[in-house]
C-alpha cells in the first residue's frame, strides 16, 4: 500500500467506527474502508490490533492506531484543517471531559439498558437518564448550535450516537430514555447534528440497525441470564 | 502569577498521577487533602458532575479526571514533556495509558479485595494483563523511554502501592520471577525524584488494607465502610 494511503477497518453498525468516518469526512481525508466481520475477525485486524482485537483501526503511513477517541485526537493532530478540538488548553480539557462523559456515562449505560432485562434494565435506564440530564444541562449552559460551538467538534462526534443510535435502542427495548419535553436542548442539538451535511449522508440504515440490535440485545441478555443460572 | 491547587486523597493513585506530572514539570502547587466521607463545598463546586478527586485548580479554573488533567498539564507547561511529540507515538502512549488505567488497575485492585473463593480467578486476570504490559515495556527503562512519561505516571499504582499492599497481604500476583522487566521498572520508577516526593507512607498504606482471606462477610462489611472513601471499580464486562 502507498505510504500516504489511509485505511479504516470498521464494522457498519459500530458507533465507534462512525465517529472516525465523520472525522475523516470533516477533514476531507480520502481513505479506504474495509468492513470487518466482528463475529469472524480477519487476520489483518488481529495483526493490527492484537491487544483488543476491536474496530475501529486507522492505518496511516502503515501504522495502526486504535480506540476511537484516540483516533479522533490523532486525526486532529495530523490534519490541521477544520479543527475538532479547541486551541486553548482549558477548553480542550473541557472537551475531553465531556467526550469521556458521553462515552463512559451515557453510551455505556444505554448499552447496558439495551442488553439487560427486568430490574437490571430499569436501573440502566435510570442511569442513562441521569447522565443525559447532565449532558442537557451542559448544552443549555453553552447555548450554541453544537458542543463545538457553531461547528461540529470533538464532543459532538463522540456523542453523535445519541442522535441516531439511541432511538433504535429505545425502540428495540421498548424503553423511554430521551423524552423531548425533558430534553429540549438535546433535541435541538440532535436536529442540528443530523442535518449537518457531513452527518446526514453517512448514517447506518435504521431498519438494519433495528434488526441487528434486536438480535444482539436478545443474545447478550440470554447469555447474562444463563451465567446467572449456571 | 500562577496559582495551582490540587484537591486529592492520600491513597488515590489518580491523585498521585497528577502530583507526579506537576513534580516533573517543577510546578509549585498547594495540596489540599479531602475527607471523602465529608466532601468539602469546594470539591462539590469544582467537580459537580462526579464529585471526585483529583481536581486541579489552575488560576481558579477547575480541571477534573486524572487523564484529562495530565493532558492539560502537558499542554500548559511545555518543559519536560510527558507525551511524545510525534502524533503516532503520542497515540501509542495514550493507548497504553488507557490500558493501564482501564484494564490493569481494576484487575489488580480486584485481587486486593478478593475473598479466598475469588482470589485465583482474579489473580489469573491480573497476571494476563501484567503480561501484556511486560511485553510492551520490552527492553526499555521506562514506558516513556529514558525518562518517565504518561504511561509510567498512570501505572504508578503498579510501580509502588500495589507491591507494598501485596506484600502486606501475602499475595503473589506481581512477582520478580513472573515479571522481571516490570519489577525492574517498578524499582527504577519508585526511585525517581518526582515520584519519591509524593508516594504515600508505606506503614499508612499497609494499615488501611485488611488481610486477604478474611471471609466474605468481613471483607464486604469493610468494603461497604470504605465505599464512601474509595469506590472499587465495577466488575469487568
UniProtKB/TrEMBL annotation, chain A:
<dbReference type="GO" id="GO:0005737">
    <property type="term" value="C:cytoplasm"/>
</dbReference>
<feature type="domain" description="GST N-terminal">
    <location>
        <begin position="4"/>
        <end position="83"/>
    </location>
</feature>
<comment type="similarity">
    <text>Belongs to the GST superfamily. HSP26 family.</text>
</comment>
<dbReference type="InterPro" id="IPR040079">
    <property type="entry name" value="Glutathione_S-Trfase"/>
</dbReference>
<dbReference type="Pfam" id="PF00043">
    <property type="entry name" value="GST_C"/>
</dbReference>
<dbReference type="InterPro" id="IPR045073">
    <property type="entry name" value="Omega/Tau-like"/>
</dbReference>
<dbReference type="InterPro" id="IPR010987">
    <property type="entry name" value="Glutathione-S-Trfase_C-like"/>
</dbReference>
<dbReference type="InterPro" id="IPR004045">
    <property type="entry name" value="Glutathione_S-Trfase_N"/>
</dbReference>
<feature type="domain" description="GST C-terminal">
    <location>
        <begin position="88"/>
        <end position="212"/>
    </location>
</feature>
<protein>
    <recommendedName>
        <fullName>Probable glutathione S-transferase</fullName>
        <ecNumber>2.5.1.18</ecNumber>
    </recommendedName>
</protein>
<dbReference type="GO" id="GO:0004364">
    <property type="term" value="F:glutathione transferase activity"/>
</dbReference>
<keyword id="KW-0808">Transferase</keyword>
<dbReference type="InterPro" id="IPR004046">
    <property type="entry name" value="GST_C"/>
</dbReference>
<dbReference type="InterPro" id="IPR036249">
    <property type="entry name" value="Thioredoxin-like_sf"/>
</dbReference>
<dbReference type="Pfam" id="PF02798">
    <property type="entry name" value="GST_N"/>
</dbReference>
<dbReference type="InterPro" id="IPR036282">
    <property type="entry name" value="Glutathione-S-Trfase_C_sf"/>
</dbReference>
<dbReference type="InterPro" id="IPR045074">
    <property type="entry name" value="GST_C_Tau"/>
</dbReference>
<dbReference type="GO" id="GO:0006749">
    <property type="term" value="P:glutathione metabolic process"/>
</dbReference>
UniProtKB/TrEMBL annotation, chain B:
<dbReference type="InterPro" id="IPR036249">
    <property type="entry name" value="Thioredoxin-like_sf"/>
</dbReference>
<dbReference type="InterPro" id="IPR004046">
    <property type="entry name" value="GST_C"/>
</dbReference>
<dbReference type="GO" id="GO:0006749">
    <property type="term" value="P:glutathione metabolic process"/>
</dbReference>
<dbReference type="InterPro" id="IPR045073">
    <property type="entry name" value="Omega/Tau-like"/>
</dbReference>
<dbReference type="InterPro" id="IPR004045">
    <property type="entry name" value="Glutathione_S-Trfase_N"/>
</dbReference>
<feature type="domain" description="GST N-terminal">
    <location>
        <begin position="2"/>
        <end position="81"/>
    </location>
</feature>
<dbReference type="GO" id="GO:0005737">
    <property type="term" value="C:cytoplasm"/>
</dbReference>
<dbReference type="InterPro" id="IPR040079">
    <property type="entry name" value="Glutathione_S-Trfase"/>
</dbReference>
<dbReference type="InterPro" id="IPR045074">
    <property type="entry name" value="GST_C_Tau"/>
</dbReference>
<dbReference type="GO" id="GO:0004364">
    <property type="term" value="F:glutathione transferase activity"/>
</dbReference>
<dbReference type="Pfam" id="PF00043">
    <property type="entry name" value="GST_C"/>
</dbReference>
<keyword id="KW-0808">Transferase</keyword>
<protein>
    <recommendedName>
        <fullName>Probable glutathione S-transferase</fullName>
        <ecNumber>2.5.1.18</ecNumber>
    </recommendedName>
</protein>
<comment type="similarity">
    <text>Belongs to the GST superfamily. HSP26 family.</text>
</comment>
<dbReference type="InterPro" id="IPR010987">
    <property type="entry name" value="Glutathione-S-Trfase_C-like"/>
</dbReference>
<dbReference type="InterPro" id="IPR036282">
    <property type="entry name" value="Glutathione-S-Trfase_C_sf"/>
</dbReference>
<feature type="domain" description="GST C-terminal">
    <location>
        <begin position="86"/>
        <end position="214"/>
    </location>
</feature>
<dbReference type="Pfam" id="PF02798">
    <property type="entry name" value="GST_N"/>
</dbReference>
